[in-house]
Design a protein that fits this description.
Length: 428
Protein backbone atom coordinates (compact mmCIF):
# COMPACT_ATOMS: atom_id res chain seq x y z
CA UNK A 1 0.00 0.00 0.00
CA UNK A 2 1.14 3.58 -0.59
CA UNK A 3 2.32 5.42 2.49
CA UNK A 4 3.34 8.87 3.70
CA UNK A 5 6.71 9.35 5.36
CA UNK A 6 6.82 12.49 7.51
CA UNK A 7 9.84 13.93 9.32
CA UNK A 8 8.13 15.94 12.02
CA UNK A 9 9.07 18.93 14.14
CA UNK A 10 9.03 21.57 11.38
CA UNK A 11 6.87 24.65 11.84
CA UNK A 12 4.42 25.09 8.94
CA UNK A 13 4.57 28.54 7.37
CA UNK A 14 3.31 30.23 4.23
CA UNK A 15 0.05 30.02 2.29
CA UNK A 16 -2.22 27.12 1.30
CA UNK A 17 -5.21 27.13 -1.07
CA UNK A 18 -8.30 25.16 -0.03
CA UNK A 19 -10.06 23.01 -2.65
CA UNK A 20 -13.77 22.51 -3.31
CA UNK A 21 -15.82 20.74 -0.65
CA UNK A 22 -15.84 16.93 -0.89
CA UNK A 23 -19.22 16.58 0.82
CA UNK A 24 -20.79 19.14 -1.50
CA UNK A 25 -19.22 17.65 -4.63
CA UNK A 26 -20.38 14.08 -3.92
CA UNK A 27 -23.97 15.38 -3.68
CA UNK A 28 -23.87 17.86 -6.58
CA UNK A 29 -22.27 15.49 -9.13
CA UNK A 30 -25.09 12.90 -8.91
CA UNK A 31 -27.63 15.75 -8.86
CA UNK A 32 -26.63 16.61 -12.45
CA UNK A 33 -28.78 13.61 -13.46
CA UNK A 34 -31.86 15.70 -12.60
CA UNK A 35 -31.05 18.19 -15.37
CA UNK A 36 -32.23 17.72 -18.95
CA UNK A 37 -29.22 19.72 -20.19
CA UNK A 38 -25.44 19.71 -19.62
CA UNK A 39 -24.04 21.29 -16.44
CA UNK A 40 -20.63 22.86 -15.85
CA UNK A 41 -19.17 22.45 -12.34
CA UNK A 42 -16.26 24.62 -11.13
CA UNK A 43 -13.96 24.32 -8.09
CA UNK A 44 -14.38 20.53 -8.21
CA UNK A 45 -11.78 18.95 -5.88
CA UNK A 46 -9.41 16.39 -7.42
CA UNK A 47 -10.03 13.65 -4.86
CA UNK A 48 -10.85 9.95 -5.07
CA UNK A 49 -14.50 10.29 -3.99
CA UNK A 50 -15.11 12.77 -6.82
CA UNK A 51 -13.46 10.54 -9.41
CA UNK A 52 -15.56 7.59 -8.17
CA UNK A 53 -18.76 9.70 -8.44
CA UNK A 54 -17.86 10.76 -11.98
CA UNK A 55 -16.91 7.19 -12.94
CA UNK A 56 -20.35 6.01 -11.82
CA UNK A 57 -22.01 8.69 -13.98
CA UNK A 58 -19.80 7.77 -16.95
CA UNK A 59 -20.52 4.04 -16.62
CA UNK A 60 -24.24 4.84 -16.50
CA UNK A 61 -23.99 6.69 -19.82
CA UNK A 62 -23.18 10.31 -19.02
CA UNK A 63 -20.83 12.34 -21.19
CA UNK A 64 -18.03 13.89 -19.07
CA UNK A 65 -15.55 16.49 -20.36
CA UNK A 66 -12.82 18.03 -18.22
CA UNK A 67 -12.67 21.73 -19.15
CA UNK A 68 -9.86 22.45 -16.68
CA UNK A 69 -8.09 20.98 -13.64
CA UNK A 70 -11.12 21.74 -11.42
CA UNK A 71 -13.84 22.35 -14.05
CA UNK A 72 -15.99 19.62 -15.59
CA UNK A 73 -18.89 19.55 -18.06
CA UNK A 74 -21.37 16.74 -17.46
CA UNK A 75 -24.20 15.81 -19.82
CA UNK A 76 -26.30 13.14 -18.11
CA UNK A 77 -29.02 13.05 -20.78
CA UNK A 78 -27.60 9.74 -22.02
CA UNK A 79 -28.48 7.98 -18.75
CA UNK A 80 -31.56 5.81 -19.20
CA UNK A 81 -31.09 2.96 -16.71
CA UNK A 82 -31.58 4.09 -13.04
CA UNK A 83 -29.21 1.42 -11.70
CA UNK A 84 -25.86 1.69 -9.83
CA UNK A 85 -24.38 -1.79 -9.42
CA UNK A 86 -22.55 -2.99 -6.30
CA UNK A 87 -19.19 -3.08 -8.06
CA UNK A 88 -19.35 0.68 -8.56
CA UNK A 89 -21.20 1.75 -5.41
CA UNK A 90 -19.13 -0.26 -2.91
CA UNK A 91 -16.15 2.10 -3.04
CA UNK A 92 -17.99 5.08 -1.66
CA UNK A 93 -20.71 5.50 0.93
CA UNK A 94 -21.96 8.70 -0.70
CA UNK A 95 -23.14 6.59 -3.66
CA UNK A 96 -26.45 6.59 -1.80
CA UNK A 97 -27.09 10.07 -3.26
CA UNK A 98 -27.79 8.28 -6.56
CA UNK A 99 -30.92 6.90 -4.85
CA UNK A 100 -32.46 10.35 -4.42
CA UNK A 101 -31.42 11.74 -7.76
CA UNK A 102 -32.46 8.67 -9.81
CA UNK A 103 -35.79 8.48 -7.94
CA UNK A 104 -36.33 12.20 -8.53
CA UNK A 105 -35.59 11.87 -12.25
CA UNK A 106 -36.90 8.40 -13.20
CA UNK A 107 -39.21 7.55 -10.26
CA UNK A 108 -37.06 4.42 -10.00
CA UNK A 109 -33.65 3.65 -8.46
CA UNK A 110 -31.62 0.52 -7.82
CA UNK A 111 -28.42 1.22 -5.86
CA UNK A 112 -26.29 -1.13 -3.79
CA UNK A 113 -26.68 -0.79 -0.04
CA UNK A 114 -23.88 1.52 1.16
CA UNK A 115 -20.80 -0.39 2.29
CA UNK A 116 -20.04 -1.26 5.90
CA UNK A 117 -18.46 1.72 7.53
CA UNK A 118 -15.70 2.65 9.84
CA UNK A 119 -17.61 5.03 12.08
CA UNK A 120 -20.04 2.65 13.70
CA UNK A 121 -23.69 2.06 12.95
CA UNK A 122 -24.80 4.11 9.93
CA UNK A 123 -28.35 3.09 9.00
CA UNK A 124 -30.27 4.72 6.15
CA UNK A 125 -33.74 4.42 7.68
CA UNK A 126 -34.32 8.17 7.48
CA UNK A 127 -33.43 8.21 3.78
CA UNK A 128 -36.02 5.49 3.14
CA UNK A 129 -38.53 7.30 5.38
CA UNK A 130 -38.20 10.39 3.16
CA UNK A 131 -38.62 8.40 -0.08
CA UNK A 132 -41.67 6.59 1.31
CA UNK A 133 -43.21 9.88 2.43
CA UNK A 134 -43.06 11.03 -1.22
CA UNK A 135 -44.91 7.89 -2.35
CA UNK A 136 -42.07 5.52 -3.18
CA UNK A 137 -41.97 1.82 -2.34
CA UNK A 138 -38.56 0.81 -0.94
CA UNK A 139 -37.29 -2.77 -0.74
CA UNK A 140 -33.95 -4.48 -0.13
CA UNK A 141 -33.48 -6.86 -3.04
CA UNK A 142 -30.39 -9.03 -2.27
CA UNK A 143 -28.30 -6.08 -1.12
CA UNK A 144 -29.66 -3.69 -3.73
CA UNK A 145 -31.96 -0.93 -2.51
CA UNK A 146 -34.85 -0.94 -4.97
CA UNK A 147 -37.11 2.11 -4.95
CA UNK A 148 -39.98 2.90 -7.27
CA UNK A 149 -42.97 5.23 -7.36
CA UNK A 150 -45.90 5.62 -9.73
CA UNK A 151 -45.70 9.30 -8.90
CA UNK A 152 -43.84 11.46 -6.38
CA UNK A 153 -46.15 13.70 -4.35
CA UNK A 154 -44.88 16.44 -2.02
CA UNK A 155 -45.33 15.70 1.69
CA UNK A 156 -44.24 16.55 5.22
CA UNK A 157 -40.97 14.80 6.23
CA UNK A 158 -39.88 14.96 9.88
CA UNK A 159 -36.46 13.40 10.54
CA UNK A 160 -36.04 11.49 13.83
CA UNK A 161 -32.42 12.68 13.96
CA UNK A 162 -30.46 15.40 12.19
CA UNK A 163 -28.96 13.66 9.16
CA UNK A 164 -26.96 15.29 6.36
CA UNK A 165 -27.37 12.39 3.96
CA UNK A 166 -31.10 11.96 4.37
CA UNK A 167 -31.69 15.73 4.15
CA UNK A 168 -29.78 15.81 0.85
CA UNK A 169 -31.49 12.69 -0.49
CA UNK A 170 -34.92 14.07 0.42
CA UNK A 171 -34.16 17.27 -1.53
CA UNK A 172 -32.96 15.29 -4.55
CA UNK A 173 -36.12 13.15 -4.57
CA UNK A 174 -38.56 16.02 -3.91
CA UNK A 175 -37.24 18.65 -6.31
CA UNK A 176 -39.42 17.40 -9.21
CA UNK A 177 -42.25 15.90 -7.10
CA UNK A 178 -45.78 17.27 -7.49
CA UNK A 179 -46.59 19.95 -4.92
CA UNK A 180 -44.92 21.09 -1.69
CA UNK A 181 -42.49 19.08 0.43
CA UNK A 182 -41.54 20.35 3.89
CA UNK A 183 -38.47 18.79 5.52
CA UNK A 184 -38.32 19.35 9.27
CA UNK A 185 -35.38 18.74 11.60
CA UNK A 186 -33.21 19.19 8.48
CA UNK A 187 -29.40 19.26 8.57
CA UNK A 188 -27.89 22.74 8.16
CA UNK A 189 -24.35 21.92 7.00
CA UNK A 190 -22.78 24.21 4.35
CA UNK A 191 -22.87 21.37 1.82
CA UNK A 192 -26.66 21.00 2.31
CA UNK A 193 -27.00 24.69 1.43
CA UNK A 194 -24.60 24.31 -1.51
CA UNK A 195 -26.71 21.51 -3.02
CA UNK A 196 -29.89 23.58 -2.61
CA UNK A 197 -28.19 26.55 -4.31
CA UNK A 198 -27.02 24.28 -7.13
CA UNK A 199 -30.54 22.87 -7.65
CA UNK A 200 -32.05 26.37 -7.55
CA UNK A 201 -29.53 27.48 -10.19
CA UNK A 202 -31.06 24.74 -12.39
CA UNK A 203 -34.57 26.14 -11.80
CA UNK A 204 -35.62 24.30 -8.64
CA UNK A 205 -37.74 26.04 -6.00
CA UNK A 206 -36.08 25.33 -2.63
CA UNK A 207 -36.33 27.66 0.36
CA UNK A 208 -34.92 27.48 3.87
CA UNK A 209 -31.77 25.41 3.25
CA UNK A 210 -29.42 26.14 6.16
CA UNK A 211 -32.31 26.21 8.61
CA UNK A 212 -34.03 23.20 10.16
CA UNK A 213 -37.08 23.62 7.88
CA UNK A 214 -36.58 23.27 4.12
CA UNK A 215 -39.52 23.86 1.74
CA UNK A 216 -39.41 22.44 -1.78
CA UNK A 217 -42.00 23.18 -4.45
CA UNK A 218 -41.72 20.58 -7.21
CA UNK A 219 -40.92 21.79 -10.73
CA UNK A 220 -41.46 19.99 -14.03
CA UNK A 221 -37.94 20.30 -15.45
CA UNK A 222 -34.46 21.44 -14.48
CA UNK A 223 -32.18 23.21 -16.96
CA UNK A 224 -28.41 23.14 -17.31
CA UNK A 225 -26.27 25.49 -15.23
CA UNK A 226 -22.74 26.57 -14.41
CA UNK A 227 -21.99 26.30 -10.71
CA UNK A 228 -18.92 26.72 -8.46
CA UNK A 229 -18.69 24.36 -5.47
CA UNK A 230 -17.99 25.96 -2.07
CA UNK A 231 -14.58 25.58 -0.39
CA UNK A 232 -14.11 22.60 1.91
CA UNK A 233 -14.64 23.65 5.56
CA UNK A 234 -13.10 20.38 6.86
CA UNK A 235 -10.00 20.58 4.68
CA UNK A 236 -9.59 24.19 5.87
CA UNK A 237 -10.07 23.16 9.50
CA UNK A 238 -7.52 20.39 9.09
CA UNK A 239 -4.87 22.85 7.87
CA UNK A 240 -5.76 25.23 10.73
CA UNK A 241 -5.09 22.42 13.21
CA UNK A 242 -1.87 21.41 11.42
CA UNK A 243 -0.63 25.01 11.63
CA UNK A 244 -1.48 25.10 15.35
CA UNK A 245 0.08 21.69 16.09
CA UNK A 246 3.41 22.79 14.59
CA UNK A 247 3.18 26.29 16.18
CA UNK A 248 3.35 27.57 12.63
CA UNK A 249 2.27 30.72 10.83
CA UNK A 250 -0.10 29.88 7.98
CA UNK A 251 -2.50 31.82 5.75
CA UNK A 252 -5.31 29.49 4.64
CA UNK A 253 -6.88 30.85 1.44
CA UNK A 254 -10.15 30.27 -0.47
CA UNK A 255 -12.29 29.68 2.62
CA UNK A 256 -15.65 30.98 3.85
CA UNK A 257 -14.81 32.10 7.43
CA UNK A 258 -18.45 31.77 8.52
CA UNK A 259 -18.29 28.02 7.77
CA UNK A 260 -15.30 27.77 10.13
CA UNK A 261 -16.87 29.60 13.10
CA UNK A 262 -17.16 26.61 15.47
CA UNK A 263 -13.64 25.40 14.57
CA UNK A 264 -12.18 28.88 15.04
CA UNK A 265 -13.94 29.29 18.40
CA UNK A 266 -12.50 26.05 19.77
CA UNK A 267 -9.00 26.74 18.43
CA UNK A 268 -9.01 30.17 20.09
CA UNK A 269 -10.11 28.52 23.36
CA UNK A 270 -7.09 26.17 23.05
CA UNK A 271 -4.82 29.21 22.68
CA UNK A 272 -4.51 29.49 18.90
CA UNK A 273 -4.76 32.88 17.22
CA UNK A 274 -7.10 32.99 14.18
CA UNK A 275 -7.28 36.23 12.19
CA UNK A 276 -10.21 36.34 9.75
CA UNK A 277 -10.21 38.04 6.33
CA UNK A 278 -12.87 37.98 3.56
CA UNK A 279 -11.81 34.64 2.06
CA UNK A 280 -8.92 33.50 4.24
CA UNK A 281 -7.83 32.89 7.83
CA UNK A 282 -4.38 33.45 9.33
CA UNK A 283 -3.37 30.94 12.03
CA UNK A 284 -0.54 31.44 14.55
CA UNK A 285 0.31 30.25 18.08
CA UNK A 286 2.10 32.51 20.55
CA UNK A 287 1.47 31.10 24.03
CA UNK A 288 0.83 27.61 25.44
CA UNK A 289 -1.90 25.29 24.14
CA UNK A 290 -4.41 24.65 26.92
CA UNK A 291 -6.94 21.93 27.68
CA UNK A 292 -10.38 22.37 26.17
CA UNK A 293 -13.56 20.27 26.11
CA UNK A 294 -15.13 19.42 22.74
CA UNK A 295 -18.53 17.93 21.88
CA UNK A 296 -19.36 17.17 18.25
CA UNK A 297 -22.77 18.34 17.06
CA UNK A 298 -24.66 18.96 13.82
CA UNK A 299 -23.85 22.30 12.15
CA UNK A 300 -23.42 24.99 13.42
CA UNK A 301 -21.93 22.96 16.30
CA UNK A 302 -18.40 21.55 16.24
CA UNK A 303 -18.21 19.18 13.23
CA UNK A 304 -17.63 15.47 13.85
CA UNK A 305 -15.34 15.45 10.79
CA UNK A 306 -12.90 17.64 12.76
CA UNK A 307 -12.96 15.53 15.95
CA UNK A 308 -9.90 13.33 15.24
CA UNK A 309 -7.82 16.32 14.16
CA UNK A 310 -8.64 18.55 17.16
CA UNK A 311 -8.17 15.60 19.55
CA UNK A 312 -4.64 15.24 18.16
CA UNK A 313 -3.97 18.91 18.89
CA UNK A 314 -5.25 18.46 22.46
CA UNK A 315 -2.62 15.75 22.98
CA UNK A 316 -0.12 18.63 22.80
CA UNK A 317 -2.07 20.92 25.15
CA UNK A 318 -1.47 21.35 28.88
CA UNK A 319 -4.01 19.63 31.11
CA UNK A 320 -6.89 17.20 30.67
CA UNK A 321 -9.37 17.62 27.79
CA UNK A 322 -12.65 15.81 27.33
CA UNK A 323 -13.85 15.03 23.80
CA UNK A 324 -17.40 13.74 23.31
CA UNK A 325 -18.27 12.22 19.90
CA UNK A 326 -22.03 12.66 19.79
CA UNK A 327 -22.69 11.89 16.10
CA UNK A 328 -21.09 8.50 15.45
CA UNK A 329 -20.54 5.63 17.89
CA UNK A 330 -17.13 4.49 16.73
CA UNK A 331 -15.03 7.47 15.73
CA UNK A 332 -12.04 6.94 18.05
CA UNK A 333 -10.28 4.23 16.03
CA UNK A 334 -7.30 6.56 15.56
CA UNK A 335 -6.61 6.59 19.32
CA UNK A 336 -4.63 3.32 19.27
CA UNK A 337 -2.46 4.80 16.51
CA UNK A 338 -1.86 8.01 18.48
CA UNK A 339 -0.92 5.97 21.55
CA UNK A 340 1.90 4.44 19.48
CA UNK A 341 3.15 8.03 19.14
CA UNK A 342 3.04 8.63 22.90
CA UNK A 343 -0.44 10.06 23.30
CA UNK A 344 -2.21 9.55 26.63
CA UNK A 345 -5.88 9.05 25.76
CA UNK A 346 -8.49 6.84 27.38
CA UNK A 347 -11.78 6.14 25.61
CA UNK A 348 -15.06 5.06 27.19
CA UNK A 349 -17.89 4.83 24.65
CA UNK A 350 -18.50 8.29 23.20
CA UNK A 351 -16.00 10.05 25.47
CA UNK A 352 -12.23 10.40 25.15
CA UNK A 353 -10.16 11.76 28.05
CA UNK A 354 -6.95 13.31 26.73
CA UNK A 355 -4.00 14.04 29.05
CA UNK A 356 -1.72 16.57 27.36
CA UNK A 357 1.74 15.07 26.90
CA UNK A 358 3.46 18.13 25.41
CA UNK A 359 5.08 16.19 22.56
CA UNK A 360 4.52 13.14 20.35
CA UNK A 361 7.10 10.71 18.93
CA UNK A 362 7.24 9.58 15.31
CA UNK A 363 6.14 5.97 14.76
CA UNK A 364 4.73 3.65 12.05
CA UNK A 365 0.91 3.98 12.04
CA UNK A 366 -2.04 3.02 9.83
CA UNK A 367 -4.90 5.27 8.76
CA UNK A 368 -8.22 3.61 9.81
CA UNK A 369 -10.44 6.07 7.90
CA UNK A 370 -10.42 9.45 6.16
CA UNK A 371 -10.42 11.96 9.03
CA UNK A 372 -8.49 9.66 11.37
CA UNK A 373 -5.84 9.50 8.64
CA UNK A 374 -5.77 13.30 8.48
CA UNK A 375 -5.31 13.37 12.26
CA UNK A 376 -2.30 11.04 11.95
CA UNK A 377 -0.78 13.40 9.37
CA UNK A 378 -1.19 16.27 11.87
CA UNK A 379 0.40 14.10 14.56
CA UNK A 380 3.31 13.21 12.28
CA UNK A 381 3.93 16.86 11.41
CA UNK A 382 4.13 17.77 15.10
CA UNK A 383 6.00 14.68 16.30
CA UNK A 384 9.72 14.38 16.97
CA UNK A 385 11.18 11.91 14.46
CA UNK A 386 9.81 9.93 11.52
CA UNK A 387 6.17 8.85 11.12
CA UNK A 388 5.14 6.39 8.41
CA UNK A 389 1.41 6.30 7.65
CA UNK A 390 0.00 3.30 5.78
CA UNK A 391 -3.37 2.98 3.99
CA UNK A 392 -3.23 6.60 2.83
CA UNK A 393 -5.89 5.86 0.20
CA UNK A 394 -8.36 6.78 2.96
CA UNK A 395 -6.81 10.24 3.21
CA UNK A 396 -6.69 10.74 -0.56
CA UNK A 397 -10.47 10.29 -0.69
CA UNK A 398 -10.95 13.73 0.84
CA UNK A 399 -7.75 15.80 0.59
CA UNK A 400 -6.51 17.04 -2.79
CA UNK A 401 -2.71 16.80 -3.15
CA UNK A 402 -2.23 16.88 0.62
CA UNK A 403 1.49 16.08 0.48
CA UNK A 404 2.16 18.81 -2.12
CA UNK A 405 0.16 21.38 -0.16
CA UNK A 406 2.01 20.48 3.06
CA UNK A 407 5.41 20.57 1.33
CA UNK A 408 4.44 24.05 0.13
CA UNK A 409 4.14 24.96 3.82
CA UNK A 410 7.59 23.60 4.60
CA UNK A 411 6.64 20.12 5.79
CA UNK A 412 9.02 17.23 5.18
CA UNK A 413 6.52 14.70 3.74
CA UNK A 414 6.86 12.29 0.86
CA UNK A 415 4.55 9.64 -0.60
CA UNK A 416 6.17 6.24 -1.05
CA UNK A 417 4.43 4.00 -3.53
CA UNK A 418 4.65 0.37 -2.54
CA UNK A 419 4.38 -2.14 -5.47
CA UNK A 420 1.11 -4.02 -5.64
CA UNK A 421 -0.84 -1.40 -3.74
CA UNK A 422 -4.51 -1.86 -4.41
CA UNK A 423 -7.41 0.34 -3.36
CA UNK A 424 -9.51 -1.63 -0.88
CA UNK A 425 -13.23 -1.08 -0.41
CA UNK A 426 -13.80 2.02 1.63
CA UNK A 427 -17.05 3.44 2.78
CA UNK A 428 -17.69 6.52 4.87
C1 LIG B 1 -22.25 12.95 6.15
O1 LIG B 1 -22.39 11.56 6.41
C2 LIG B 1 -20.81 13.14 5.73
N1 LIG B 1 -20.54 12.37 4.53
C3 LIG B 1 -19.88 12.67 6.84
O2 LIG B 1 -18.56 13.00 6.45
C4 LIG B 1 -20.20 13.47 8.11
O3 LIG B 1 -19.42 12.96 9.16
C5 LIG B 1 -21.69 13.33 8.45
O4 LIG B 1 -22.49 13.73 7.32
C6 LIG B 1 -22.08 14.22 9.63
O5 LIG B 1 -21.80 15.56 9.33
C7 LIG B 1 -20.90 12.93 3.34
O6 LIG B 1 -21.43 14.04 3.30
C8 LIG B 1 -20.58 12.13 2.12
P1 LIG B 1 -25.54 11.67 8.79
P2 LIG B 1 -23.88 10.95 6.61
O7 LIG B 1 -26.61 11.05 7.99
O8 LIG B 1 -24.81 11.68 5.74
C9 LIG B 1 -27.54 8.70 11.91
C10 LIG B 1 -16.31 12.66 6.02
O9 LIG B 1 -15.37 12.42 6.78
N2 LIG B 1 -28.45 8.33 10.83
O10 LIG B 1 -25.59 13.14 9.06
O11 LIG B 1 -23.80 9.49 6.50
C11 LIG B 1 -26.12 8.23 11.63
O12 LIG B 1 -25.96 6.88 12.04
C12 LIG B 1 -17.62 11.94 6.22
O13 LIG B 1 -16.29 13.51 5.09
C13 LIG B 1 -29.51 7.46 11.10
O14 LIG B 1 -29.69 7.00 12.23
O15 LIG B 1 -24.14 11.35 8.13
C14 LIG B 1 -25.28 9.19 12.44
O16 LIG B 1 -25.22 8.72 13.78
C15 LIG B 1 -17.55 10.93 7.35
N3 LIG B 1 -30.34 7.12 10.09
C16 LIG B 1 -26.09 10.48 12.40
O17 LIG B 1 -27.41 10.12 11.97
C17 LIG B 1 -30.18 7.60 8.82
O18 LIG B 1 -31.00 7.24 7.93
C18 LIG B 1 -25.54 11.50 11.41
O19 LIG B 1 -25.41 10.85 10.17
C19 LIG B 1 -29.11 8.47 8.56
C20 LIG B 1 -28.25 8.83 9.58
Amino acid sequence: MDKFIIKGGRRLSGEVEISGAKNAAVAIIPAVILSDEPCILENVPQIRDVSISMKILYEMGADITMLGKHTVKIDASGITEPIVPYEMAKHMRASYYFLGTLLGKFKRARVSMPGGCYLGDRPIDQHLKAFSALGANCTNDHGMIDIQADSLIGNQIYFDCVTVGATINAMLAAVKATGLTVIENAAKEPHVVDLANFLNSMGADIMGAGTDVIKIRGVKRLRGTTYAIIPDQIEAGTYMVAAAATRGDVLIKNVIPKHLESITAKLEKIGVSVEEFDDSVHVTVDGPLVKTNIKTMPHPGFPTDMQPQISTLLCLAEGTSIVTEDIFNNRFRYVDELRRMGADISVDGKVAVIEGVGKLMGAPVTAPDLRAGAALVVAGLAAHGITEIEDIYHIERGYENIEEKLRGLGADIIKKSVPGSAVRKVAL
